[in-house]
Amino acid sequence: MPLFVKTEFIKKKYFLNFNLRKLIIQEHIDWVKKLKNKGVHINSGFLINNQKKPGGGGLLTIECENYFEAEKIIKSDPMVKNNIVDWKLHEWIDITKN
User: Could you tell me the CA-to-CA distances from 33 to 36, 49, 96 in Å, in that order?
Assistant: First the structure.
């Protein structure tokens, strides 16, 4: 099944609003867990630097039949619905497969 990757960065105006950001991130975590429980192959996390400090943005992978199915699911993400992130969605192609 095709693998899709969502990259995201929290919008600067939300860095200062820690409580709102924390609330929506928890909703995002709950959303991912709910999808996993339904059998969706999805993983979500954030990127850190060599000192283990966050700031490199977030990364989500999901297996779907096609781009439009992946996009539909991603648009239901609380972080996307609440417009706190700038995001992009791409299909990942394994170069070792024909």
Answer: 5, 26, 30
